[in-house]
Amino acid sequence: MKVKDVKLFAVVGGSAAVTAAALGVAVLQGPASSVAGDMQTGATITQSAAPSTAPQEVATPQIKGPAPLPSEEQGLPG
Asked: How confident is the model over 20-30, as pLDDT tens digits?
């Protein structure tokens, strides 16, 4: 075996060991929600009755009729 091959195997093996350790830590880590379970956001909630009917708004266009084409979209005159 050449020294170059041994170095390549060492790099691949070391990378595999680091990857396996990182995956092991990620899998064995506890749930993150247990830490923030008792936190409060400080938001104020006000109870109110819901409206009996939703407001009906109708959209109306501001431009009536066809809009003019831009100059680069218009055909040749005539």
From this structure: 999 998 888 86
The two tokens of residue 11 are 């790099």
Q: Report the distance separating Cα 66 and Cα 29, nearest Å.
A: 63
Q: Tokens 């009906």 appear where?
A: 56
Reported as type and span, the H/E element at residue 4 is: helix 3-28
Cα three-residue angle 20-21-27, rounded to 5 degrees: 85
Placement of tokens 């407001």 in the chain:
55
Q: Is the pTM of this model over 0.70?
A: no
C-alpha 17/C-alpha 39 separation (Å) is 37
Where on the phi/psi map is residue 56: left (φ > 0), alpha (ψ -120 to 50), or beta?
beta
